[in-house]
């Protein structure tokens, strides 16, 4: 099969509103650029997938991606950017392996959902941990109340997940940590959706497949003084200092993922106009759906408490399993796809990352209102 | 920018003969299919990059990729296929972490080049290792002579790298191990280039970016009785049993890489006709270049001994640095690109993986003959 103009234009019309929790929607203009360059990157004579990671063309791509990311997130010179593999799951181990193991300290975790729980599980293998907050008693519907968590000045670090994709619970602002304690953020599912104060964090990391690119790329933004803490005897891939010394080329990085991330960052800078604008748009999209939930309190039951509702993943349930199934089925007739909640929570999860167009959210909000009216 | 028919046809003409050692050439027909489906995978309403890894469409893709790989390589039911991240570099640690650590045994390594050397370095952190063969004294130009290596019946495993990309040294056939000793093969750079007896191996693994797909995907083919050996206290991502139990979805797999690998495997099955044919074609391509080297013994100096010359990476040097630079420069005028050898060996490395067309090798062979005649 070869690519023709007909293929390309036909397929654009066939696109649905994709509410997948991740891997998730990518801006259409980015996909079209990737498509145009797939067989031959301009000036390269080859696909970006075929280029040596050490050649000038790819080195320019990775350096430009980092430079643009630094601009977009206002990353200070105190922090390095690493492009790694292994997803958040490998960071669950790399963070305690580098910063907790052999430290004689305790790492404090705020467990606000499934991902925080997995993270502390891996950390426990490496050293002393404390679940300073654990939301499991209320099925992870909230974040800790202000002043609720005592963070020791001597903690190895304070860890939180800024947005719990499965439960739809998001920290509106980062939790407070003493200045002596590195603040570590798993930003996997709200990375690049709003500004984040990098200077205030020891590590901010994210797998790419929500807002930043394809699955298989992990971005780690790490304060320089934390890089060298890992013991030389750790598996080489797990040592931040190896990746740092080699500028993310300790081994072959996921080159295609870095290339797509670079385009998404450019889209955020140039087409959207930066993260303040993106955050405003995301807040408006989320508000449309939460308004429908609040307007139909006997029909839709939101999962998260109002003060920590996620602007990325809107989670709610319906009065019965039958109505839930009907909701998903009817939604598909409006090109609304991938709404089913994670199997551990059930219900509906509408993921409305950066690349979900306003039109898609409007379509869903309208459908929700009509569906509630028809079935109440 | 949007993709049009003009973009596509223009860019195909601009493609060069890409002799990159990896990431490396991908079959043009595969790139064209990926291009046609980039914005909207038929039936999915979205790009493959935007699909949930747990949705039916991607699950079908990964299962079909595995099924086709099993057909192509005749993988027996005794072995599982895992799709992981982290490259060969992470396998350097995962293999000893799972199979050597706490075993009270010694792992034996045949070190025939840079990659074997890196692998044994990581293994040393996990347990007792022995370099049963070490080719460093002759700058890694050979493999062990038959009968040269004593493998203990009680070794944890016997490890080798079937093709050393940097030195251009390849095992024509796997080394012999006692049946009690799992044979472990790093096949990163000759995976899918020829048949390999999987049943005879404990593990055959490969990063994808030579013959099997984009960087960021690692294929691990592992005998089922070896999967459960890792200690529960290892970092979760490093435990083969986690990935096995979750059918490569312990975390989000590199979905785009799996999708491209699936297409490359189909190309090998349907367009090429299987690995016997592919191996024959690869042998013919390599012979064209080695013939020119042997015909000009005072001009071209091959790096590898004749009995273990790689059919994937043809490494040689020229009489002077000036001629080397001129060779690379002139080659580019014939659309011959990415010839420079790895910085640790120098000289020329022409990587002629599966996707390098015969025409590209013929063009290089002709150029080599003319260049030698002109400059001898």
UniProtKB/TrEMBL annotation, chains A, B:
Keyword vocabulary terms for this entry: Amino-acid biosynthesis, Aminotransferase, Cytoplasm, Pyridoxal phosphate, Pyridoxine biosynthesis, Serine biosynthesis, Transferase
Gene that specifies this protein: serC
Cofactor: pyridoxal 5'-phosphate
Species of the source: Rubripirellula obstinata
UniProt GO MF annotations: O-phospho-L-serine:2-oxoglutarate aminotransferase activity; pyridoxal phosphate binding
EC class (word): transferase
Residue sites binding pyridoxal 5'-phosphate per the record: 115, 165, 186, 209, 251-252
Compartments it resides in: Cytoplasm
Database matches in PANTHER family: PHOSPHOSERINE AMINOTRANSFERASE
InterPro entries: Aminotrans_V_dom (IPR000192), Aminotrans_V_PyrdxlP_BS (IPR020578), Pser_aminoTfrase (IPR022278), PyrdxlP-dep_Trfase (IPR015424), PyrdxlP-dep_Trfase_major (IPR015421), PyrdxlP-dep_Trfase_small (IPR015422)
Function: Catalyzes the reversible conversion of 3-phosphohydroxypyruvate to phosphoserine and of 3-hydroxy-2-oxo-4-phosphonooxybutanoate to phosphohydroxythreonine.
Annotated positions binding L-glutamate: 54
Residue ranges occupied by any Aminotransferase class V domain in the UniProt entry: 16-364
Oligomeric form and interacting partners: Homodimer.
The protein's name in its UniProt record: Phosphoserine aminotransferase
Family as reported in the entry's similarity comment: Belongs to the class-V pyridoxal-phosphate-dependent aminotransferase family. SerC subfamily.
Pathway: Cofactor biosynthesis; pyridoxine 5'-phosphate biosynthesis; pyridoxine 5'-phosphate from D-erythrose 4-phosphate: step 3/5; Amino-acid biosynthesis; L-serine biosynthesis; L-serine from 3-phospho-D-glycerate: step 2/3
Annotated Gene Ontology cellular component terms: cytoplasm
Pfam families: Aminotran_5
PTM annotation (N6-(pyridoxal phosphate)lysine): residues: 210
Catalytic activity: O-phospho-L-serine + 2-oxoglutarate = 3-phosphooxypyruvate + L-glutamate; 4-(phosphooxy)-L-threonine + 2-oxoglutarate = (R)-3-hydroxy-2-oxo-4-phosphooxybutanoate + L-glutamate
Enzyme Commission (EC) number: 2.6.1.52
Cofactor note as given: Binds 1 pyridoxal phosphate per subunit.
Domain of life according to the entry: Bacteria
GO biological process, one term: pyridoxine biosynthetic process
């Amino acid at each position: 099969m070869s690519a023709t103009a007909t293929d390309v234009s036909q397929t654009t019309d066939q696109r649905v509103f994709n509410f997948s929790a991740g891997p998730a929607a990518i801006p259409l203009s980015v996909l079209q650029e990737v498509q145009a360059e797939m067989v031959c990157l301009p000036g390269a004579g080859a696909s970006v997938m075929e280029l040596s990671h050490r050649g000038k063309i790819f080195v320019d791509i990775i350096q430009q991606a980092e430079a643009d990311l630094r601009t977009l997130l206002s990353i200070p010179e105190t922090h390095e950017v690493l492009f790694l593999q292994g997803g958040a799951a490998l960071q669950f181990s790399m963070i305690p392996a580098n910063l907790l193991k052999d430290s004689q300290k305790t790492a404090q975790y705020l467990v606000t959902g499934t991902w925080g729980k997995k993270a502390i599980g891996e950390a426990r293998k490496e050293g002393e941990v404390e679940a300073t907050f654990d939301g499991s008693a209320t099925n992870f519907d909230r974040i800790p109340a202000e002043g609720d968590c005592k963070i020791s000045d001597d903690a190895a670090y304070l860890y939180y997940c800024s947005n719990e994709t499965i439960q739809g619970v998001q920290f509106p602002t980062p939790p407070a940590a003493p200045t002596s304690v590195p603040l570590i953020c798993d930003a996997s599912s709200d990375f690049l959706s709003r500004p984040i104060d990098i200077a205030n964090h020891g590590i901010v990391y994210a797998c790419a497949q929500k807002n930043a690119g394809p699955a298989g790329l992990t971005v780690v933004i790490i304060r320089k003084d934390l890089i060298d803490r890992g013991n030389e005897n750790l598996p080489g891939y797990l040592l931040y200092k190896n990746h740092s010394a080699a500028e993310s080329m300790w081994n072959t990085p996921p080159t295609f993922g870095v290339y797509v991330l670079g385009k998404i960052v450019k889209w955020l800078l140039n087409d959207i106009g930066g993260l303040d604008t993106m955050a405003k748009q995301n807040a408006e999209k989320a508000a449309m759906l939460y308004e429908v939930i609040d307007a139909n309190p006997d029909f839709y039951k939101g999962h998260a408490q109002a003060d920590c509702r996620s602007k990325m993943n809107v989670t709610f349930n319906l009065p019965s399993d039958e109505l839930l199934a009907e909701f998903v089925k009817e939604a598909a007739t409006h090109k609304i796809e991938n709404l089913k909640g994670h199997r551990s929570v059930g219900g509906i999860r509408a993921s409305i990352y950066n690349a979900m167009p306003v039109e898609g959210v409007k379509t869903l909000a309208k459908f929700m209102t009509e569906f509630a009216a028809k079935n109440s």
